[in-house]
Amino acid sequence: MSWSTSVTQSNRLIDYIGRNLDIYRIDNNLQSMKHAQYEINHMIRPMLETMRNILRNLILYRMDSLKTLIELRPKVNHCPSTRCLVCKPTIHLVGIFSIAYYQPHVVQKDCRSCDCSSNQHIPMSYMLDYECSKNGWNYNEREMIDMIHELCNISAEFAHFLMHVVCSTKDDPFLIGFVEMIIEENDIYNSQTSNRLNLQLANDLRNLKNKYEQRFNEIHHLENYRKLSNIYYLINNINKYPMIREQLAAVKEGQKIMMKQHEYEIPRISCL
Fold this sequence. Notes:
The protein is of the alpha+beta class. It has one domain (25-252). The protein has helices spanning 3-20, 33-63, 141-165, 173-190, 196-220, 228-238, 242-265, and strands at 23-26, 29-32, 69-76, 82-84, 90-94, 97-101, 121-123, 126-133. The strands form four sheets. Strands 1-2 form a two-stranded antiparallel ribbon. Strands 3-8 form a two-stranded antiparallel sheet. A two-stranded antiparallel ribbon has the order 4-7. Helix 2 (33-63) packs antiparallel against helix 3, helix 2 (33-63) packs parallel to helix 6 and helix 4 (173-190) runs antiparallel to helix 5 (196-220). The longest helix has 31 residues, at 33-63.
């Protein structure tokens, strides 16, 4: 093959990539469908937990509970961890709110923490602790409601992107998360450490889930789906939330630790 022919074919390939593949360069950052999918997948739990905690604080705010609020305290996982779907969480009282704590399980062939099968475990990219704070409110009631609505609407956008644009899943991960949180809060209320605040939280989550489903259906019936650049705009918006940003930082720090551990595990091949 001659040099000129090779150059011509290379130019054709580059032209094809530019015209046909969903890759964009915005602000000197390479953006792609796969990368957006990767970013969103890591945001699902932080977004859901943030919405739940804002609802907790709205309940406390309306009670005027000694100006007390609950803050999320994400913790880095230093080894690959999972959450068992069968084992019950421990219930801790944070201020006047009962909150479920999940002990991370380490699974290799079998779980070291329980006798449940490995397929009953899901990845746990970071741990979540909670702290009762009396530092005062950073947001008023209206601002917290607006944050909830924005996060709910963006969640629907992300779910639609995952399910109907990149087609990476048939199940709605945000809807699954809402259902799990509602069940969890009802279980806490029905347990021996019952707390009516958890019943209120379960009802608020149920209302939020209904709004989420309504927004998702609205998006699904639109003919013009959001462009990739719009999805990245929403991703950047989510990163502006301190509560979410701190959880994502814990995820990324945990990933760095895992990568270093795997580097040490890979045997080095010496040159002879």
